[in-house]
Specification:
Elements (H helix, E strand, L loop, with lengths): L1 H10 L13 H29 L25 H15 L5 H26 L8 H21 L5 E2 L1 H6 L2 E4 L4 E4 L4 E2 L3 E3 L7 E3 L8 H30 L5 H20 L2 H7 L8 H21 L8 H18 L6 H4 L1 H24 L11 H6 L2 E2 L6 E2 L4 H21 L5
Length: 424
């Protein structure tokens, strides 16, 4: 709203010191980040006191993990703090006429509601299973469908291929971003960035066995299905990662920072030309949104770090994963997610492998066997067990150390994701 107010005053000829500041993506991003931190810190303290007073706490099952039972009764549904701290600065500093911004706001509200319903059933209905899994999947599929249709048919989400950026005849330097004008190569083609390849743009239409209108329909359908899979996978991956104090919060902040950098680079024609990637002219507000998200997460981490005073619950984890997936799709970098979201990926794979192998061995040998001491993967390092080979006890790692090491791995993956733009 402040962005639109300043734009209105500037267009009406109002002139005072700082009138043009809101045109800078960097300024709006910094303001959003700082505002989100302040809101999260202020709201978080009051929310924790309120939830403790109402005795709205997490119910903990005894899984034999160190320090686990001490967490019983810790307030949950802290994702509402993240959502509130994110949405207020977004409304203040983002361009609300930008389709990217509207899709990210919709993602936040939609998945926030879905996760909140899940937490409500767990906390107030005392049903540990929460919302039926099929309803979560349906909600995530609906979100993927909305985003996919928007990318296929909304002209405001068009982009320019990297070679088109180089061939553009007119380049205008504006105070908000570097923009290409009079470029006929603007397209809504279903293309994305693929790592480690010299010509790093991949067109989903290449996978279509048909030509003409049938081929166009098939490729768009395939693209939408890929988007649904990515958003669902990211959302559930973040949900599985949320099992230790500060783990999902910190990892999401690191991933969000990398996506913010990629969004800013994609929205600047000079950087897009340098990295030889597609230019997405209206992606600047995605960078502002992600900087605001980082602020909200840092503010929440103040209370969520070990030992946590509040948990984000599914309200936060489902929302964070969904935002990451949607952001990657909007800037056409979704094929980089297996690297960037490596933590989410291995957490999800550990659960799939564990369950599949347990069912297989139970059917074959009459008793289920496990690959990991416990899944998701972070609990594998937390659980003390007897080594099957040396027959000696394997000590559990402290929770804080596991979380910090996951942070380090996530940082390495984020750096690697960014430099893949030049490693070809």
């Amino acid at each position: 709203m402040l962005y639109h107010l300043f734009e209105y005053l500037r267009q009406r000829g109002t002139d005072f010191s700082g009138i043009g500041l809101m045109q800078y993506i960097s300024v709006r991003g910094i303001l959003g980040n700082i505002t989100a931190i302040i809101i999260a810190l202020a709201v978080g303290k009051k929310a924790i006191g309120f939830l403790q007073k109402k005795q709205i706490g997490e119910e903990i099952r005894n899984l034999g993990l160190e320090g686990q039972l001490a967490k019983k009764g810790t307030p949950t549904m802290g994702g509402l703090i993240i959502i509130f701290s994110l949405l207020i600065p977004t409304l203040l500093f983002c361009d609300l006429s930008n389709t990217n911004t509207l899709l990210l706001i919709f993602t936040t509200v939609w998945l926030g509601f879905l996760g909140c319903m899940d937490d409500y059933i767990k906390v107030f209905k005392h049903n540990k299973e929460g919302l039926n899994g099929k309803y979560k999947i349906i909600g995530q599929v609906i979100l993927g469908l909305v985003v996919g249709l928007a990318l296929c048919f909304d002209e405001s989400l068009a982009f320019r291929e990297s070679n088109a950026v180089k061939a553009s005849e007119t380049v205008e330097q504006t105070v908000s971003a570097t923009v290409v004008s009079s470029d006929p190569a603007e397209s809504n083609a279903i293309m994305t960035t693929i790592p480690f390849v010299k010509n790093n743009e991949f067109n989903y239409a290449w996978l279509s066995p048909f030509k003409g209108k049938a081929g166009d329909f098939f490729s768009k359908l395939l693209y939408i299905l890929v988007i649904i899979f990515i958003i669902t996978g990211c959302s559930n991956g973040a949900n599985l990662t949320d099992g230790m104090d500060g783990l999902a919060t910190g990892v999401s902040a690191i991933v969000g920072a990398a996506l913010g950098v990629l969004a800013y680079v994609s929205g600047n024609v000079v950087y897009a030309d340098y990295f030889n990637i597609m230019y997405i002219g209206n992606s600047g507000d995605i960078a502002v949104f992600m900087m605001t998200l980082i602020g909200a997460l840092l503010g929440f981490l103040w209370y969520n770090s070990y030992p946590a005073q509040i948990f984000m619950g599914d309200t936060g984890s489902l929302t964070l994963g969904g935002i990451i997936g949607v952001c990657a799709v909007l800037i056409r970098k979704e094929l980089l997610l297996p690297i960037l979201c490596g933590i989410f990926l291995v957490e999800s794979l550990s659960v799939i492998i564990q369950r599949t192998y347990f069912k297989y061995t139970k059917k074959k040998y009459g008793e289920g066997r496990r690959v990991f001491k416990m899944s998701p993967l972070h609990h594998h390092f937390q659980k003390e067990d007897i080594d099957a080979v040396i027959k000696k006890p394997v000590k559990a790692h402290p929770e804080a150390k596991i979380v910090m090491r996951f942070y380090i791995v996530s940082m390495v993956l984020a750096v690697l994701t960014i430099i893949t733009l030049k490693i070809r």
